[in-house]
Amino acid sequence: MRRIHPSPLFLVLPGVLWLAGCDQGVHSNEQEPLEPEATGTSSDPGATSTVPDEESTGGDSSGEGEGGSTFIVPPDDPPPDCDVWAQDCPAGEKCMPWANDGGNAWNSLKCVELVDNPGEAGDPCHAEGGGVSGVDDCALGSMCWDVDPETAEGVCVAMCTGDESNPICEDPSTSCVIVNDGVLNICLPDCDPLLQDCADGQACYPVNGLFTCAPDASGPELGLFGDPCEYINACDPGLFCANAAAVPGCEGSAGCCSDFCDLSADFPEDDCSGAAQGQECVPWYDEGDTPPGAEAYGACALPSS
After folding, report:
1. Do the strands 161-163 and 166-168 form a parallel or antiparallel pair, or are they unpaired?
2. Which of 84, 91, 169, 209 is 20 to 30 A from 178, alpha carbon to alpha carbon?
3. Do residues 216 and 269 touch, judged by C-beta distance below 8 A?
4. In this structure, are residues 11 and 50 in contact, taking their beta carbons and an 8 Å threshold?
């Protein structure tokens, strides 16, 4: 298993995955703008400092009321019920990510009851109440993933073991994806962004410096070149969520979808939908940071970005 590294260039919101549902529009996760895995900053020329702060704040814990009295202000978000790494729930339960705000992005943790004869990684599964409910029929240390919003059916995937500083996936063809402010830590298949060699309904997306397969949550009307995006998996296969400055006509959006391109091709810019507006095919990784086999990975971006 390869450990995931810090987010590469061009990622607008490198740390938040979300689940497609009835609402296919762009979500602005205000409490933690695309908490993609981490920060929206990067040494990459495509990165900008305009990405909203990914850490939500609950405000001061105390304040002065009228008359000088002191009162306690509860935090905006209560602490999670459990630790997804330690799996410290009572016997017969497991620690699961879920969406506590009614949205489509996992943003908290809670203990849920284990079912009898739960499914293991790779088995089909059912997510009661939807893919971000946190309630499913997968075993301890796994969760129901890539859930169909119509049927609530998906497949069990393993959660990472170890800890956040040393995550482990038993399957060597997968990498530990730690996103959504650390709420979500799962082992997803490695992939090639130029080949887009993921299963149907999924795409190869950049997560923490590596590329992994995740559900394509762009929906039927968004996800094309130039469309606004805020989440890692909000663009169609072959595209990624780029900083606004990298995409022509993206002013006013947090980011927009742009193309991957092949640096080894005779004319790499032919892969860029925005070539006529000045986009160039530039290396995805900084010099000296390119993993073996990723030398041809490029991103279509404006040179000023």
Report:
1. antiparallel
2. 91
3. no
4. no
Share in percent of the chain as helix, strand, coil (round to 5): 5, 30, 65
Q: Which residues contact 89 (CB under 8 A, 6 or more apart)?
A: 81, 82, 95, 111, 112
CA distance 219 to 20: 7
- Cα separation, 275 vs 114, in Å, equals 52
Distance from C-alpha of 158 to C-alpha of 177, rounded to nearest angstrom: 11
pLDDT tens sequence across 4-16:
222 333 444 445 6
Q: Where are the domains of the chain?
A: 1-17+164-305, 86-159
Selection from 79, 115, 114 nearest residue 100 by Cα: 79
CB of 180 closer than 8 Å to CB of 14: no
Q: Which long-range contacts (CB under 8 A, 24 or more apart) does 192-198 make?
A: 193/238, 193/240, 193/260, 193/284, 193/297, 194/260, 194/262, 194/296, 194/297, 196/237, 196/238, 198/237
What is the pTM (predicted TM-score) of this model? 0.73
8 Å CB contact between 35 and 230: no
